[in-house]
């Protein structure tokens, strides 16, 4: 008679805690204390260079703090007086309008349109042409702002400028007669590289079958771009426009070319804040304008992000 077999042994249950792991440890097994030590330097840098300046700016914005004089040693609390003054200041209105014009002309229209145009054209160009254009565009982007500003001042000089020599318009003062036009063209020329590279990567992911279908259907070049390419790139367009709009809104490079002259006709908001806070010595008032500028940046970002969410839904 067969003996009853014993039931199979239950597999050994693994220890609740793996070797080297202790209760409350992180996934890497470092432990909370050691993990905290790793992130402490980064947190200190963020606190010193981001959190503290932001809190200090909020404080200065409600005081009459100045660089020199009694208000520098003993600033007084003025509440929202700086903000009221800024919102009623014609120079602030002028700077805000010029900044919006600068963003619309050089970022939204200039860099986006030119960047897409270059990316779309170069995708079918010979390799040597594509490499040459990309190198020139990237060179304008990676050069330091001070160097680029010096080159443009030399180009537009009224007496010995290269542009006047080429056009035969000796004596024409471009920086005096057309300051905002110069800044818009300058920023478009300098910042197009980012848009071009982003759109080039997006076009590389476009299914060739869609373009081939449009060609066989007899669509023109503009119809292909409008009905096939742009719908595919709409998220890239919004992301690109958001980033370059914020970068342009906060760009200080115009100061290196015109310093807000002549007669405040090129004084965009970053330049206006600098001239008010540093040469003007009004750190409290300048800090209040900086906070207003931050609020405008957040509003622009919220507008673009909302558009992006609506496109996804």
Account of the protein in words:
The protein is built from 14 helices and no strands. The chain has two domains: 33-62; 90-312, MetI-like fold, CATH 1.10.3720. The longest helix has 33 residues, at 90-122. It is mainly α.
Topology (elements, then pairings):
Blueprint (H helix, E strand, L loop, with lengths): L31 H29 L9 H4 L7 H7 L2 H33 L4 H16 L2 H12 L5 H6 L6 H4 L1 H26 L3 H9 L4 H29 L4 H4 L11 H9 L5 H30 L1
Descriptive keywords:
313 residues, 2 domains, mainly alpha, MetI-like fold
Give a summary of the structure in a few sentences.
Helix content is 70%, strand content 0%. The chain contains 14 helices and no strands.
Major beta-sheet overview: none
Over the alpha carbons, how many angstroms does the gyration radius reach?
29 Å
User: In CATH terms, what is the fold-level topology of the largest domain?
Assistant: MetI-like fold
Oligomer state equals single chain
What's the β-strand tally? 0
Let me know the average pLDDT.
85
Q: Provide the CATH superfamily of the largest domain.
A: MetI-like
* CATH class call of the largest domain: Mainly Alpha
With helices defined by DSSP (H or I, 4 residues minimum), what is the helix count?
14
Shape call: globular
Element order: H for helix, E for strand: HHHHHHHHHHHHHH
The percentage of residues in β strands lies in: under 5%
Structural class: mainly alpha
Low-confidence stretches: 12-18
